[in-house]
């Protein structure tokens, strides 16, 4: 009986996968084997294993990791505190609301705020620290990226925390565990699904950021996304762009497998 | 479950309600059927009043779409899907489109107003005889610098940028050809150079510029330079014109070694469904008064000699944006270097971008 | 206990302040007679007036909302089906494969998705415009819904399902009366994430749109070269306030009318 119901749900989903996932993947893999003149070759793959692209890959992974890490560190307490409020669903929606404003506009606002004559520096002046260059630094890039991804990280963690049975926490405290131990041994493990979802939704897209690398980081940070966008649009070298995409997909699969399901009930 | 179904129904009701409103709005715009002209242009690159005027005068309904980069526009046109009657690519894109047979030839007989275009801007290498394109706006690439922040100095050469005094003070525009071109020009080479040794030389020179570069940005460099975020910028003349509107402390110069001459021209893609209306539109935009009004709005340099009499003397006598023949002789139009060479340029550019200070 | 409360409030306040800072920045400058997003010169309502005269922009905004709502709704339904399909798969390998396939679209840069969808649509012969944009938005929103819904499915205790079956519930009843209510928070999370993805998307929409159909993102990004004029700020301000009112208003109406039934002990 279980098998039958599984089939039913699979049908629309599989159609979607076949059309919109498999086909683009096939297209991308297909293109990756063609060099700029349209000849079949492994040129692109050879090119990928040069210092330039390997450095770029490492850089992308590093920044994506940092962004995910900070997003997690900030999002978890936020989600936790939100579950304790009276109108938690409302507050949650209010967290999501800003993400509906267009990204370009928000980036422009940040350029205004972090600019040399912007609000942030005015604040620093008042504090006596003096004006600093905030824009076009690693700091501003990671800050704005975390800002953009924060709601995506908060939401799944909030859901996980919300469903947490409070009597478990009470029991742990009754048994004498400190707050930290309760968190480490009870709360966190039970919400790890939410954490994993959040990390996936942040880390994976963070690898291919390119708008923010230009707007906020002024191209001081180069991710794989920057290269792909350049290849697809400027050079019209769909081959090389597709090759990088292939590696992105492989990286994603590896991550999924590594953080994958270990036993039933754990994502 | 009930909650979900209720939510779904609300969503559907709102959606269909809005669709109805859109349908009504489209009707008031007269959007259904009849003689239509589909235009694909840069964002905010035309005085919309002129579109209304054109619609009134000819009875042709205009459908207007925008793009943000030549490459994106090229991809859309190459793939088909939408039949654009008019597009406004930049010169190197037009060169490409010509080669790939994506354009309809333009019948000059249908454009009596063509005589108003300055002959300097006609018959250029990217479109000999203007068989496929008609000039819309043009400009140069140069250095914008803030006199107030830097003191009363003058930039005359590209090499001035390499002065160590300008540490962390330059904003470059994010374009491989612009940046590489500047380096090539500074070495005395043409910005269409295909000699790999020269190109490597240019790239090495750029690496040396890295300490002076604050950031490499796109269109937002206009906002940044207006805001004095940096004292120096490598910009297109159009951007410079816009910045100077807001910021009185800046100056624009085309360095003496030469620079790029760019054009945005009107073309008729091959998939056009209304070639007749397209010609009417082009002729309309070539009318001197129309061109003057458009130039007033857009702020870039017009190629239309006839329009100059309707414009401010102050604007047209500004040799920074309306250079004379002697100055334009030193400017080069980007040639289509072919996919392989372009890829080489971009690879070097990418390497340069990754070069740490 | 009091101290913790205060600290938490401060923390939440800072988070909200930072989240909303750019938004307020945008709204602030929408009243700027100076025409730019810095150097506030004087107060004016001219941008709002200009907005209401711009029928083309109004149509674009409405289209954007329609596409966002419909694509979010449909992709949520598909996403639920997908999450169920993955949940019911017996073998771990199948689950991992499906999940990886699911996440491909999240990891792929927008440019690639846009380009491959464009090729796909032209091959099938779908006319570019509302339909193609809607399909594309549904396509890239499904993965995020799956990721939001799946953890809730994981957490669900199967004993409830068995109990329901033992009591004679049909498969449909199990689905609608046991499973769906339990995962509703995940469903709403997925819906709102899908909404966000749709509203913010530029690259994919740009590639698959045509025939005069445009969304707000495409318009805004196209303005970048010439500078975003402040009537866009005015528009964003209005949309934002409107959504805010909707959210708050809807929430209070719901709270007043019903108490959604939940399982488990709530403190």
Essential attributes:
heterotrimer; B: 357 residues; alpha/beta; 7-stranded mixed sheet; 3-stranded parallel sheet; 43% helix; C: 267 residues; mainly alpha; 11 helices; 0% strand; disordered C terminus
* Beta-strand segment tally of chain C: 0
What is the overall silhouette of chain A? globular
- Amino- and carboxy-terminal Cα gap of chain A: 24 Å
Can you tell me the residue ranges of chain C where pLDDT is under 50 for at least 5 consecutive residues? 261-267
**Mean pLDDT metric of chain C:** 85
Number of strands of chain A: 0
The portion of residues assigned to helices of chain A is over 70%
Count the DSSP helices of chain C.
11
Structural class assignment of chain A: mainly alpha
Class based on secondary structure composition and strand pairing of chain C: mainly alpha
> Which quaternary structure do these chains form?
heterotrimer
User: Can you summarize the main beta sheet of chain C?
Assistant: none
Helix content of chain C: over 70%
- Main sheet record of chain A: none
N-end to C-end Cα span of chain C: 17 Å
Describe this structure in words.
The complex is a heterotrimer of chains A (267), B (357) and C (267). By secondary structure, chain A is mainly alpha-helical. Chain A is 74% helix and 0% strand. Chain A contains 13 helices and no strands. Chain A is globular and about 70 Å long. Mean pLDDT of chain A is 85; it is low at 262-267. Chain B has 357 residues and is of the alpha/beta class. Chain B contains 15 helices and ten strands. Chain B has helices at 2-28, 48-58, 70-79, 91-99, 147-150, 176-186, 196-209, 221-226, 237-246, 275-286, 288-298, 305-308, 313-316, 325-328, 339-354; strands at 36-42, 61-67, 86-87, 133-146, 170-173, 213-217, 232-236, 250-253, 259-267, 331-332. In chain B, the strands form two sheets. In chain B, strands 4, 5, 6, 7, 8, 9 and 10 form a seven-stranded mixed β-sheet that branches. Chain B has a three-stranded parallel β-sheet with strand order 2-1-3. In chain B, helix 6 (176-186) crosses helix 7 (196-209), helix 6 packs across helix 15 (339-354) and helix 7 runs parallel beside helix 15 (339-354). The longest helix of chain B has 27 residues, at 2-28. Chain C is 78% helix and 0% strand. Chain C has helices at residues 2-29, 46-53, 55-88, 92-107, 110-124, 130-155, 158-166, 171-200, 203-208, 216-223, 230-257. The longest helix of chain C is centred in the N-terminal third of the chain and has 34 residues, at 55-88. Chain C starts with a helix and ends in a 10-residue tail after the last helix. The model of chain C is unreliable at 261-267 (pLDDT under 50). At the A-C interface, helix 1, helix 3, helix 4, helix 5 and helix 7 of A face helix 1, helix 3, helix 4, helix 5 and helix 6 of C.
């Amino acid at each position: 009986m279980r098998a039958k119901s599984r089939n039913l749900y699979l049908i629309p989903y599989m159609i979607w996968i076949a059309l919109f996932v498999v086909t683009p993947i096939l297209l991308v893999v297909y293109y990756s084997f063609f060099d700029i003149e349209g000849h079949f070759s492994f040129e692109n793959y050879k090119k990928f294993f040069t210092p330039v692209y390997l450095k770029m890959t490492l850089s992308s992974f590093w920044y994506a990791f940092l962004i995910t890490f900070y997003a997690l560190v900030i999002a978890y307490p936020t989600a936790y505190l939100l579950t304790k409020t009276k109108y938690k669903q409302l507050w949650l929606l209010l967290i999501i609301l800003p993400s509906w404003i267009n990204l370009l506009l928000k980036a422009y606002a940040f350029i205004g705020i972090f600019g040399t004559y912007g609000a942030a520096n005015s604040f620093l002046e008042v504090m006596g620290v003096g004006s600093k260059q905030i824009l076009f630094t690693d700091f501003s890039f990671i800050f704005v990226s975390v800002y953009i991804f924060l709601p995506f990280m908060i939401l799944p963690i909030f859901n996980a925390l919300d469903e947490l049975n409070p009597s478990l926490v009470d029991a742990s405290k009754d048994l004498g565990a400190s707050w930290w131990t309760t968190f480490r041994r009870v709360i966190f493990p039970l919400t790890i699904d939410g954490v994993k979802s959040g990390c996936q939704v942040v880390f994976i897209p963070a690898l291919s950021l390119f708008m923010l690398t230009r707007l906020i980081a002024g191209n001081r940070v180069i991710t794989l996304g920057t290269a792909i966008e350049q290849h697809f649009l400027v050079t019209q070298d769909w081959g090389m762009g597709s090759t990088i995409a292939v590696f992105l997909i492989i990286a994603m699969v590896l991550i999924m497998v590594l953080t994958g399901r270990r036993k039933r009930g754990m994502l | 479950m009930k909650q979900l179904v209720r939510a779904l129904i609300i969503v559907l009701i709102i959606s269909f309600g809005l669709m109805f409103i859109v349908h009504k709005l489209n009707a008031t715009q007269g959007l259904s059927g009849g003689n239509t002209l589909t235009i694909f242009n840069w964002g905010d690159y035309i005085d919309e009043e002129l579109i209304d005027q054109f619609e009134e005068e000819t009875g042709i309904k205009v459908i207007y779409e925008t793009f943000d980069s030549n490459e994106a526009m090229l991809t859309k046109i190459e793939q088909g899907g939408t039949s654009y009657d008019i597009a406004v690519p930049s010169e190197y894109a037009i060169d490409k489109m010509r080669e790939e047979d994506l354009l309809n030839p333009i019948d000059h007989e249908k454009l009596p107003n063509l005589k108003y275009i300055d002959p300097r801007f006609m018959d250029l290498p990217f479109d000999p005889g203007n068989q496929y394109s008609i000039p819309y706006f043009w400009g140069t690439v140069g250095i914008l610098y803030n006199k107030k922040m830097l003191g009363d100095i003058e930039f005359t050469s590209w090499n001035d940028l390499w002065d160590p005094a300008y540490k962390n003070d330059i904003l470059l525009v994010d374009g491989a050809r612009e940046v590489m071109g500047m380096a090539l020009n500074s070495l005395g080479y043409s910005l269409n150079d295909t000699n790999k040794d020269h190109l490597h030389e240019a790239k090495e020179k750029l690496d040396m510029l890295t300490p002076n570069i604050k950031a490499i940005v796109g269109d937002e460099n206009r906002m940044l330079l207006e805001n004095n975020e940096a004292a120096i910028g490598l910009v297109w003349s159009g951007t410079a014109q816009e910045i100077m509107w807001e910021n009185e402390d800046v100056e624009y110069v085309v360095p003496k070694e030469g620079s790029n001459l760019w054009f945005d021209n009107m073309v008729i893609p091959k998939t056009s469904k209304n070639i007749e209306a397209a010609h009417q539109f082009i002729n309309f935009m070539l009318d001197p008064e129309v061109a003057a009004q458009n130039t007033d709005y857009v702020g870039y340099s017009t190629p239309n000699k006839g329009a100059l009499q309707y414009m401010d003397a102050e604007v047209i006598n500004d040799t920074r944006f309306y250079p004379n023949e002697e100055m334009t002789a030193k400017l080069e139009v980007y040639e289509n270097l072919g996919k392989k060479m372009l890829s080489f340029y971009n690879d070097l550019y990418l390497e340069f971008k990754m070069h740490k200070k | 206990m009091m101290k913790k409360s205060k600290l938490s409030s401060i923390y939440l306040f800072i988070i909200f302040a930072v989240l909303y800072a750019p938004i307020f920045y945008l709204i602030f400058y929408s009243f700027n007679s100076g025409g730019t997003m810095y150097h506030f010169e004087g107060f004016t309502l001219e941008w709002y007036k200009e907005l209401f005269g711009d029928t083309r922009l109004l149509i674009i905004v409405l289209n954007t909302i329609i596409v966002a709502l419909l694509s979010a709704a449909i992709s949520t339904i598909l996403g639920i089906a997908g999450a169920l399909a993955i949940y019911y798969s017996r073998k771990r390998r199948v689950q991992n494969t499906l999940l990886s396939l699911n996440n491909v679209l999240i990891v792929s840069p927008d440019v690639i998705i846009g380009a491959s969808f464009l090729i796909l649509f032209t091959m099938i012969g779908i006319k570019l415009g509302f339909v193609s944009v809607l399909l594309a938005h549904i396509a890239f929103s499904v993965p995020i819904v799956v990721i939001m819904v799946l953890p809730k499915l994981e957490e669900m205790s199967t004993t409830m399902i068995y109990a329901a079956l033992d009591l004679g519930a049909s498969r449909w009843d199990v689905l609608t009366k046991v499973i769906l209510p339990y995962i509703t928070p995940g469903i709403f999370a997925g819906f709102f994430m899908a909404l966000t993805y749709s509203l913010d998307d530029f690259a994919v929409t740009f590639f698959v749109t045509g025939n005069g159909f445009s969304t707000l993102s495409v318009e805004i990004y196209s303005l970048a070269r010439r500078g975003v004029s402040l009537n866009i700020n005015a528009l964003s301000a209005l949309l934002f306030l409107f959504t805010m009112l909707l959210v708050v208003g809807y929430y209070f109406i719901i709270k007043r009318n019903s108490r959604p039934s939940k399982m488990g002990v709530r403190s």
